[in-house]
């Protein structure tokens, strides 16, 4: 692939993802709000850019990895944004987790400039980003995906780069909904085991051998047992994803009552000052279902 690649957003996830691209020999231009990660990528072989527009002028594929919808919107449409200097036939790959409706709006703006936008959120957390083992869920043009697939394979497991369909959409939100139910289930199972005086390590080992086995039980179950909540994925970002899930459910008339409970847990965790803990710290929240029911009534 002889194209110059742009990468905007060098945070916990973005920095290792961008490093994998430059390590594979691709020409890479980078931009971020903080200078330190830019310098780190330049030391690895990337070129610095002064603004998102500067990235777009120099790159025919522009990747964004940003915290939330307003961040992506600002980087694409704001002053000195990507759209102000987008190359004809460029591909914009947004790997953030943002509002599906905003994604569709931004995709139409990219198309009006002669480009194509792919919605390509990831799952796997910081560990997946560091190990280049991310799962990547792609919505948008199959032709554009074929063009950028070599780049995605630098960052993710090739067998887990899944084309969801031609329409950018809600797959990452579905992922977060499924994880939330599993996190709550593992948390409650461990609470019950602890109250019964059972060794949690042995409970986890036993559950991993049956139908209860999951990556959440394997990875986050161990975090819960060890009270290790150093963030791989921050609770405040998960709170944002659950907010997006609630908005999408309302827009589509979908009932997600279990996710509403997980949202309450997450809100409680963040309100208690745990926003920068790993989202598996949901296991630490004292949850009063009766109080929640009373509030709903």
Write the layout of secondary structure elements.
Blueprint: E1 4-8, H1 14-23, E2 27-31, H2 35-43, E3 47-48, H3 52-58, E4 61-64, H4 69-77, E5 91-94, H5 100-112, E6 116-119, E7 122-123, H6 125-131, E8 134-139, H7 142-155, E9 156-165, H8 171-195, H9 200-207, H10 215-226, H11 235-252, H12 257-274, H13 289-296
Parallel strand pairs: 1-2, 1-4, 2-3, 4-5, 5-6, 8-9
Antiparallel strand pairs: 7-8
Helix pairs in contact: 1-6, 8-10, 8-11, 8-12, 9-10, 11-12
Describe what is shown at a glance.
The protein has 297 residues and is of the alpha/beta class. It is built from 13 helices and 9 strands. Helix 8 crosses helix 10, helix 9 runs antiparallel to helix 10 and helix 11 packs antiparallel against helix 12.
Describe the structure.
The chain is of the alpha/beta class and 297 residues long. It folds into 2 domains: 162 residues, Rossmann fold (3-Layer(aba) Sandwich), CATH 3.40.50; 125 residues, N-(1-d-carboxylethyl)-l-norvaline Dehydrogenase, domain 2. It is 53% helix and 14% strand. The chain is built from 13 helices and 9 strands. The strands form 2 sheets. Strands 3-2-1-4-5-6 form a 6-stranded parallel β-sheet, sandwiched between helices. Strand 1, helix 1 and strand 2 form a beta-alpha-beta unit. Helix 8 crosses helix 10. The longest helix has 25 residues. The protein is globular, with a radius of gyration of 20 Å. The C terminus is likely disordered.
For the structure shown, list the relevant keywords.
297 residues, alpha/beta, Rossmann fold, N-(1-d-carboxylethyl)-l-norvaline Dehydrogenase, domain 2, six-stranded parallel sheet, three-stranded mixed sheet, 13 helices, disordered C terminus
